Structures are given as C-alpha cells and as structure tokens.
Amino acid sequence: MAFQRYIYQHTTPITFWSAGLIVLGFLNAWFTHVPYVTDTAWIIASVIAAAPIVLRAISALRAKVFSIELLVGIAVIGAFAIGEFEESAIVTFLFLFGSYLEQKTLAKTRGAIQSLTEMAPTTATLLADDGSTSEVDVDDLEEGNVVLVKAGGQVPVDGKVTDGSGYVNEASITGESRPINKQSGDGVYSGAIVESGTLQIEATQVGDETTFSKIIELVEEAQDTKSPAEKFIDKFAQYYTPAVLVIAILVFIFSQNLRLAITVLVLGCPGALVIGAPVSNVAGIGNGAKHGILIKGGDVVDSLAKVDTLVFDKTGTLTTGKMTVADMQRYSKDDSLLAGVAQVEQASDHPLAQAITQHLAAHLQAATGAMDTQTVKGQGMVGTWNDAPLYVGNAKLLTANGITLTDQQEQDLHKMQDEGQSTVLVGYQGKLAYILGVADQIRPEVPAALLALKRQGIKHLVMLTGDNQATADAVASSLAIDEVHADLLPADKVKFVKKFQDQGRNVAFVGDGINDSPSLATANIGIAMGGGTDVAIETADVVLMQSSFTALNHAVGLAKKTSANTKQNITIAILTVVFLLIGLIYGYIYMASGMFVHEASILVVIFNAMRLIGYKPRVAKTATPAKQQLATN
User: Cα–Cα distance between 247 and 525 in angstroms, integer?
Assistant: First the structure.
C-alpha cells in the first residue's frame, strides 16, 4: 500500500524521468554507441513508467472493472516478451504524458469552480454593540451579527445593509460585472466585493447556508453528475475493454503474430471516447457558473438542449414585477398641477398611487406645505390645490363631481386600458387634466432575447399568467409570444405544462422560483429567474442568478453548444479508432505511433471541449416598442 501510494504521488516525476531515459537511449543509438546503454535506458524507462499503469489496472480488476490501463499493461508486458524495449518505453511514456496533460487541461475546465472556491471569504470584521470591531473567522459568525465591510473588502455573509452605502461587485454570484449601488435595507450576498463605500451588514445566513456556499456546492455536484451520453459510454466501456482483449487473443491465434496482437491492444484503448463526454459536460457547466447560470448536472444540459417549448410566467419574469407609469395623456397646460397630484398620491399606500408618486418625485420636491386629503372608497382620493378640489381616481370619482370626458378623452382612456394599463384620472376645475397609465413594464431585454431564442431553435413561446386577459394580450402582442393563457391559478399552469408534454413537446418552464414551484417541478426543465432564493436553487433545474433574459439566452445556447460538443467529441473518438484500424491493416500504424495518435485524439477532444469555456451567445439588439418605454413628464 505504501509503495502504491508512493508511485501515485510521484507519477509526474516518473513521467519526465521516463522521457529523459528514452532520449538518452536514442542519443546513444544515434551518436555514442556505448554498449548496452540504449536497451538499458529503454528497459528502465519502460519499468518505471509501467509501474503506475499496472498498479491502476490491478486496482480496477479488484473492483471488477476492465480499464484502459489493463490494455496498456498487457501490451507493455507483451512488448517486453518480444524484446521491443523501444516500443514499450514510448507507449508507457505517451500514456503517462497523455494523462498528465489531461489532468492539466481538465483542471482548466474546472477553473470556474476553482475560482469560486478561492473567492470564498475566510474572515470577517465583527461590529459589537459598543462600536468596537474584532477580526473573526467566518465560521464563528451567527445570524443577527453585524459585520463591517470597507471598500476593497469582501462580504462574509448573506444579509441586509443596516447602515452606509456603496457600490458592490456581485459578479461571483450573479455574473453581473457592473457594480450595484447598495444602501440601507438592500440585500447583499456573501462573496461580493465592496468596491467603494463602507457597509454595516446584519447577517441573515452564515457559513454553509449562504447563497455563495450553496452555489459552490451545487456546481461541484453538477460537474460530477453524468449526462445520458456519459452513462451510455460508461456502460459501453464495461463491455468494450474485454472485447478488445478477446479480439487481440483471436488475432494472435489466427496470425501467430504477437506484435500485431499487442498493437491491437494499444490501438483499442478507448481514451478519447471515455473522456470526450465528461470534459464537455464539465466545461459547459463551468461556463454557466462563471456567468451566474447554475445548471444542475449533465442530464439537465442534455434535456435543456432538447427543449422546443418555453413556457413563461408573466409577472416578474417577462415583466419587471414593479408597477410604473407607462403612459400619461395631458389635457392641461399647467404642469405645476402635477405637484398637487404627487401630494395626493403620496397619502395613499395603493400600488398605483406609489408608482405615480415615484414617477412624479421631481414635482413632489417642488411642492410646498402639506395637503389635506380625503379617501373616497372605491373611487380614489380628493385633495385641495390652490383652494380648488383636486380629484385623483377613477371615472366614477370624476363623474360624481360633475366632470365629464370628451369623445377623444374617452378614446384615449379605452386605448390605454386595452393595452393592459391601469388608469388613474386627474380632474381639476371641472375638467379632465391628465390620464396616467400604470403597468408592470416588460423587461427591456425581452424582445431581442425572445427573437434570439427562436433562432436558437425554440419553436413555441407560451405565456401563462394569473393576470387578466386584456393585460396578458397587451404584453403578448408586443412580444414574439405564440400562445397566451390568462386568469390562471398555479394548478392551472401545471395542467397546461402537462398538456404540452402530452403533445410530445419538450417543455421548459421559466418562472420566479417561488409561486411557480409546481410548474418548475412538472416541466421537463425548470428554469428559475430568481436572484438566488433558497426555493429557486432547490426547485429548479437551472437557476439564473441575474434574473435576466440575457442569461436565459446564454443558458439555452450553452446547453445546445455543450450537447453538440459532446457529439463532436464522440465522433472524433470513433473516427480515430477507424483511422488506426485502417492504418494497422495497411501497415502504416505500429504500437508506438498508434499510442501517439491515441493520446493526440484525447487532447483534441479536450481542447475541443475547452472552447465551451469562452462561449458567449449572440443576442441581436432590437428597438424597444414605444409602449414599453416610460412616459416622460
């Protein structure tokens, strides 16, 4: 056991010692011609390089597994038996050197998880009640502790800012490289970097419970989860290696050519085939992690690549989930009246009133004095502006106070309502002064992203929403949505997902990861656009930490590229075997050259997979429809 451990720990030095001895043998054969030096150098090179190979083959046999090392080990022993020391030395060196390069390049494909792990915070500045600070290990922090993070420091916990402000880089969590301004009340993630300012943060999650820790754990598990292609190849390899052994024995029996039989063993090594699929899987998932896209394993990559139907929730997914003023029709030339409207709406906690107050914030700052307001149930609010009543509410409120709309104003009102906007009317001095349309705005990147999804091979785009039909139709009409269903409960959405699946579609449901959990779990693939909530990470197959459609385009494109890359690698591996067999039949390929081609094919599939590390989707830029833009005041 100690000898085996020693050999494994020193495999890399053994590889390069073997190379040096092979070179020494050739130099002596070509120039100095000292007796016995050439064969001795090659024999020693063969023995020391064969040691880790044979030990691995024996370990695999104990586990009842026929490994690639078994084929190489038998071939080396056979080469020794016929005195082909040069061939055995080259074969063992190439095999070890190929393994060395595989480890180096595979380590690079796992670079995303490695960089995440290195970025994990280890210490924190704990702020005591008396204002004093102390440096503590992050593992000693508890929920409710307040930590101090200065510019250049790393956030050690998930929590909320209790004091201070600054710009925080959350690229390690969300993939968003642009720093985000954080102020009191805002949430922050462990692992984020404070680029400017100083923050006091109250911990809500610490240690292994932080979003950052869960991301690392999820990506590590995902990279080890096998895709269907990997599972098939693993099963195939269980029968392939014994088959090669049988074929080599048959070749020797019928040809009586031991060298040929040994060459068959070397050429039969399925290295590129075995490594091609997992390296693509690791590189693809690593790319996703780097860009804030958490994909839960190779099987998820494969399923996402096959998706032809994307089903979207509306609120918080296609839209921002935040009510804003989308349009405003003016019938008064006196815009100073807007200060009065802002004061009236400021007195209300209704979502529409809050949206209007925010939109008219500049006018509110210009207002002086307080305003007495009165709430009229079911109609709106009444205030006083320049000693005259100011009515802010629905049409009933205006009608009840003697204000009627002209035909044009009626048309404007119905047009805004048909577009799915909730309308607020402003009456003053017996006339309609303004109509404000409030709506949940479509995310600005959605139109271009949906077109890109179509180009990526998504055939059906469906919207399911609990909102009313008029609002749903208004949103769908401005986007490339193929099908829309409104007035749905969560259970109704699940029924539609199952209906699409019964039609033979591969369905991915895109939601916010909280109220859409049943649909996320039912679909072939659940995609949560959910800022890293526990529910999103646990329920969905894919989590988009940025909660953006740019990330959705990236995820779909990455899955398809990864799936295609896996198929390319399998094709390369099969063609390599065919090439070697043809070369063997026609006498162009021998044991050492065959091993060289074999190791070269492994590197080819690895380098091919590494192209996925730098993958970025192409998203066309399209103009945002006018009705999606905020109205200016």
Answer: 43
CATH 2.70.150.10 fits 142-205, yes or no: yes
φ/ψ of 537, rounded to 5, equals -65, -35
Q: Are 428 and 385 in contact (CB under 8 A)?
A: yes
Burial class (CB within 10 angstroms; exposed 0-12, middle 13-18, buried 19+) of 245? middle
322-441: CATH topology: Calcium-transporting ATPase, cytoplasmic domain N (3.40.1110)
432 close to 391: Cβ distance less than 8 angstroms = no
Nearest to 361 by CA among 609, 167, 630, 35: 630
The answer to whether 529 and 174 are in contact (CB under 8 A) is no
Cα-based distances in Å from 501 to 312, 317, 507: 15, 22, 7
Chain position carrying tokens 């390899």:
237
Please give the single-letter amino acid code of residue 215: I
Q: Is the pLDDT of residue 369 over 70?
A: no
Q: What span, in angstroms and rounded, lies between the C-alpha atoms of 104 and 265?
A: 26
Structure tokens at 450: 């949906």
| E-assigned strand segments in 402-539 | 422-428, 431-442, 460-464, 483-485, 507-511, 525-528
CA atoms lying within 13 Å on the CB side of residue 116: 29
334 is catalytic: no
Using CA atoms, how far apart are residues 402 and 382, in angstroms rounded to an integer? 14
Residue 216: per-residue pLDDT: 72
pLDDT tens string 452-472: 999 999 999 999 987 778 778
Question: Would the pLDDT of 27 be above 80?
Answer: yes
Going by the DSSP 8-state scheme, the letter that residue 177 receives in this structure is -
The amino acid at 458 = I
**Among 421, 423, 383, 416, CA closest to 401:** 383
Kindly state the tokens that stand for 230: 């990997």
- Tell me if 505 sits within 8 A of 483, measured CB to CB: no
What pLDDT digit, counting tens, does each position of 483-522 carry?
A: 999 888 778 889 999 999 999 999 999 987 556 778 888 8
Encoded amino acid at 592, one letter: A
Q: Which of 591, 599, 600, 592 is nearest to 264 (CA)?
A: 591
Residue 298 CB-half CA count within 13 A: 22
CATH no. of 292-320+443-558:
3.40.50.1000
pTM of the model: 0.71
Both tokens of 163, joined, read: 């004091």
The gap between the terminal CA atoms of the chain, to the nearest Å, is 79
Q: Domain coordinates of the chain in residue numbers?
A: 142-205, 292-320+443-558, 322-441
| 299, 302, 313, 541: the active-site residue | 313
Count of CA atoms in the C-beta half-sphere (13 A) of 264: 19
What is the spatial distance between Cα 11 and Cα 543, in angstroms, rounded to a whole number?
A: 40
Strand 374-376: give its sheet, edge to edge: 319-330, 431-442, 422-428, 388-393, 380-385, 374-376
Q: What residues does 511 pair with on adjacent strands?
A: 528
